[in-house]
Amino acid sequence: MLKMRTRVKLILTQISVFVLMLFAVFPSLALAAEAVKKEVEKPWYTGFAPIALLLGVLVIVFWRIPKVKEDFPGQLSHLKVNGYKLRRSANWMVLGLIYAFLYWGRYNLNGAVGAIGGSEMVRTFNWIFSVGAATYGLSFLLNGPLTDRLGGRFAILIGSFGAAVMNALMGVSCWAAVNGHVTHDQLFYLLMVLYALNMYFQSFGAVAIVKCNSAWFHVRERGMFGAIFGILISLGIYFAFDWTSLILNDWKFSVEWSFFAPSIALAVMFVVGWFVVRNRPSEAGYEDINTGDATAGDNTKSDPPLAVFKMMLRSRVIMIIACIEFCSGFLRQAIMQMYRYYAKAISATGELGLGGKDSFVYQNWGLLLCCAGIMGGVFAGTISDHFFGSRRGPVAAILYLGMIVCAVAMCFLLGVPVLAWLMIVMSMCVIGVHGMLSGTASMDFGGSKNTGIAVGMIDGFVYAGTATQAALYAITLPEVGAVGAENPSAWWFWPMAMIPIAIIGFYLSYKIRNEKPKAKKRKSDTEPGVETASA
To answer: Which has more confidence, 376 or 294?
Structure first.
């Protein structure tokens, strides 16, 4: 009977992998077909080049990731339990798809408001997004403690259900505006309120996925979980950019479907998550493992939220990680959002070959960000677990060093086509850092018992960096379409602002290069969860 159950689980896991790949590849096939139709003067294979990239990356991820070795007997004995790895895979795969679809329902706003109101509505996007980002950043004060008390399963289910409802309501609002039932001014306020509520439910996502997986992964395995976290972020970005474009521009669906589509996906995954996702191995019929993190072996209930907040604020490592992630939030959005504005602006000259809207990178932005994020996450997770002994600081330092080099190079490459590919390299670095710290170090040093508040606090700093970036660039960079904006030299402040932020991120990452989590032994510990390892 046990062997039969194991085989069934294996088959289900393989089907899940296939479905995940299908979700990733299918829109690319549709986009490629459209490209072949529209660009018949080019070779037939140009539209399919992005698919080859994505398939190559997926092959590397699913078949070539190194296995975790048991360096110390007994630490990873759970990996030898019959069926454990398969059940864990099913758990994180469903969690991962929900999280990726949450991203789709978060970053679909830009394309939607542009399709509704043209340039005037696009100017209101920043107001809607800024209110939503502020809501997301502050929600951890409530959602972190809730997740620690009620579990990651509760958080992912309420997050996916709430985001599905809010996206459906935003879709209805857009339908009403297109059909003249509400004015554009009324739509603006409707979207501002609904998007803020959407971002509240969205804020459960990262907390939930890290909370759930903190009970399933030992510290020595979590570097590879950081890789998984980066993959999920990357797939979500891909869905948001390329699937929304496919729905609106290629399939010519009306604008409300940019909200209805992720709403339907989230609703389906809510049902799947209800039956599959479990907080810890014991809820799935396996023995709970000793995770080796800051609260390993502590089976008491979560500490009072105020006490945990005080503990986090006193923890040197947690606060340094939060500050590093502030830098990551700044840099990530500086790349993801500002490159497209830059490319649109310099394309106004009509001159091809500047790396503007005519470039391969711009036209496949979501897919290439997905590939870059996957590779960054896998690189970071692999070297963390297999080269640096599960330390996260050295990995973040290496990736931030790459960010410094790239940001300096940007200053000399404005207006040069290779700049577009440099954006992909920088995305690989910053998503690798984000997955390693928000997705991994937060549960290492916060401990599985208090992961919700730790992740929420760190994710709040990410969005504080995002808000700072948006405000700074709104003041300093030229508006797309303004006089002189088409000149690449007018964008000099874009890379210049990244350089000091990347240097700060590198310095802080280097400061925690030797830090590793340690199980809490005494209540008198002033900074639980930290030990100093040899370099």
So the answer is: 376
Q: What is this structure's pTM?
A: 0.74
Q: Which value, to the nearest 10 degrees, does the dihedral of the CA atoms of residues 408, 411, 415, 416 take?
A: -30
Answer whether residue 114 is part of any domain: yes
Which structural domain range is residue 446 located in?
92-281+304-520
Summarised one tens digit per residue, pLDDT across range 222-272 is 666 666 666 777 778 788 877 887 788 777 888 899 999 999 999 999 999
Separation of alpha carbons 417 and 424, rounded Å: 13
Q: Tell me the pLDDT tens digit for each residue of 498-519.
A: 999 999 999 999 998 888 766 5
Whether residue 528 lies inside any domain: the answer is no
Task: Specify which residues 516 forms β-bridges with.
Answer: 531
* Triad 211, 428, 351: Cα angle to 5°: 140
User: What is the tally of structural domains in the chain?
Assistant: 1
Residues 434, 515: Cα–Cα separation, whole Å: 17
Asked if pLDDT for residue 55 goes beyond 70, the answer is: no
Torsion of CA 451, 453, 455, 456, to 10 degrees: 160
Asked if residue 27 belongs to a domain, the reply is no
Q: Give CA angle at 467 (107, 457), nearest 5°.
A: 90
Contact 263, 164 (CB under 8 A): yes
Summarize pLDDT for 404-452 with one digit per residue, the tens. Answer: 999 999 999 998 888 999 999 999 899 888 877 876 666 667 666 667 7
Q: How many CB atoms lie within 10 A of CB 285?
A: 11
What pLDDT score does 242 carry? 78
| CATH for 477 | 1.20.1250.20
DSSP string, 485-528: TTSGGGGTHHHHHHHHHHHHHHHHHHHTTTEE------TT-SST
Query: Which among 221, 134, 459 has a CA at the least distance from the CA of 322?
Result: 459
Position 288 in a domain: no
